[in-house]
């Protein structure tokens, strides 16, 4: 009913290559964009921007970064937070080394540095796989955190290792207000998503999936394994690096190396497990879930259940709920929320004529 | 039908009116404290004690005096688990106040959360209280109008420790040629004071041995072996959590006397010393507020709040411990700021901006301390537009195996020496952020 795709034919190759082939999908996307850019900045309040929308967008982007590497190219990684940290600190440092560097360019530069680091730590992936690769990315996680804490140079001589965001000026415009920070984040996140959505449909994306499904077979049919894997690490780390810069600059405004610890890597991993590996939409769903669930539980404990449970107990409960959900998803729906959404869509197509 | 509609309309109007009336009735006279507390997670011991003491004091003011000049104090908690993002979320959720009662100030008791909400609270005009911790250069109120590292900032802390060691050695001049080791937690917090220690070592001519302990600090064998080789006269412990008892135990194992180890402000609680058992006996630490229940204000809280079954502590035995008393001290300072601000702006619920004025004019002399029943618990302190720390003094206490015993009067930090360093740093910050510092000579 909602999805009546009959009668929509592609008559040109260009049309056939579109990411969204149904006009309903395109219309929905435009409506969403209109909502995000045109409506939300005016109706949202500080709380929605600073506590929900910005972290949601940044974590979606981080999820996307890991998803390209793990979901599409099949390389497990626990170093996401390390690459985020590299991006954040590189953007920050470059702002000082090159005064007058435009903010957006420093995001990109941070991403490029993160990509370089990602390639270095991706090298072992040529020889080792699965759990063993996981351990080598874990090394990245600990090494980067140690490095940034140990040498004050990275935080510009600040002995305590804390960096704070520069003024958020883009082309003379101050994006320092909550709505401004939201718009800035959105404008950085969106192009990267468009890029990634097209990337995974390109030949590189297909190479990634071939390597993921069986790299020996991929090598046999002539896919350059070295290049494919390292590009996966580079692009994934680039996106994670940009996400890290956004996390430090537009979300928190200040960050210390410890803010990118192992639990942040796990958080990003949970986003793609819950949201859906090998899915672009899944990153949004996973991030929304991971941002909203704690808040909902916390508000519940403050209002509905206050007095029933001791303060703080629901926070412990939250960890249990997350753990249970992860296990349930891994068993019942390894493809995550994105797959549930797809299933719902398929049913909606037939509704109400199920038979 | 028409009649029916009328009744319906009437009911709706009545309901709306009632809702509005009840909302305004509640807002009539309440001042709100948003509490970004942490009761679960690795630092729960600190959080439950501190927020327990803070809430009990607010409750005490409500029960004993009916609030501040009739304005009831109200509060609600939001669990942060000491996690920065949760702290930010809580800040944004609570900053608007509760049922119309405006927020007075935020007290996150977390360096990370304080850093992350520093610019937000300045933009929202809500004082950010970082008692005994926080960003050192926020002492300069001309650049940080809304941030208050009350009582003691990290620089004052080490300066006071060195002054105490000087006293013990028979004068600061005698420090020359002495050897002092500092064992610090490998985190921003742990490293914050290293430049100041180096400066002091140059000034007084003592030799400094800096040793880092990686987080979380449950393995310190090599560091203490180095200490045994180097034989320093004193060891300053800048620890955190599990690192403290482990340090004391390892010191005993390697034969370093506990009574030459001086713990800093986060190595000074019962929870830091007691787990080390006998190894902690003789351990010295600094404190801005002694533990104990003998102070009139604590007796008052016990009588009015705890005995009435309205106390916040789950474990009543923690009444009067270091963290609890810090919460009480924090409560006294917050309430005093509200009281002062009310004297200027009127006896009604105040905005954060107005309460900020109160904080900036905090003034506790012995007379006022006696009035609030906190003589000896809280140090004499006076804040101003330029000085958001106020005190800068600590007392030293020694662990006797069961509890802390205060062993020194107030020892002052060399604040004149530190001030230029603080101003350098705050002006650098102002330049980075494009802030024009206030002219403090024009502030009333």
Structure description:
- The complex is a heterodimer of chains A (355) and B (444).
- Chain A has 355 residues and is mainly alpha-helical.
- Chain A has a single domain (46-350), classed as ABC transporter involved in vitamin B12 uptake, BtuC.
- Chain A is 70% helix and 2% strand.
- Chain A has helices spanning 13-16, 23-43, 46-72, 80-97, 103-122, 130-150, 178-199, 203-213, 215-220, 225-252, 262-275, 280-302, 313-332, 336-350; strands at residues 163-164, 169-170, 173-174, 254-255.
- The longest helix of chain A is centred in the C-terminal third of the chain and has 28 residues, at 225-252.
- Chain A is globular.
- The relative contact order of chain A is 0.16.
- The model of chain A has no long low-confidence stretch (mean pLDDT 87).
- Chain B folds into 2 domains: 29-152 and 291-382 and 420-442, Rossmann fold (3-Layer(aba) Sandwich); 155-287 and 397-413, 3-Layer(aba) Sandwich (Rossmann fold), CATH 3.40.50.
- Chain B has helices spanning 2-27, 44-65, 84-94, 111-124, 154-169, 188-191, 194-204, 221-230, 243-254, 270-273, 296-306, 322-345, 352-360, 366-371, 415-433, and strands at 30-37, 72-79, 128-129, 147-148, 179-185, 207-213, 234-238, 261-263, 284-287, 363-364, 381-382, 393-399, 404-406, 411-412.
- The chains are: A mainly alpha (355), B alpha/beta (444).
- The interface between A and B is large, with 35 and 41 residues.
- Chain B: Residues 39-401 form the Leucine-binding protein domain.
- Chain B: It comes from Aquitalea magnusonii.
- Chain B: This is Amino acid/amide ABC transporter substrate-binding protein (HAAT family).
- Chain B: Keywords: Signal.
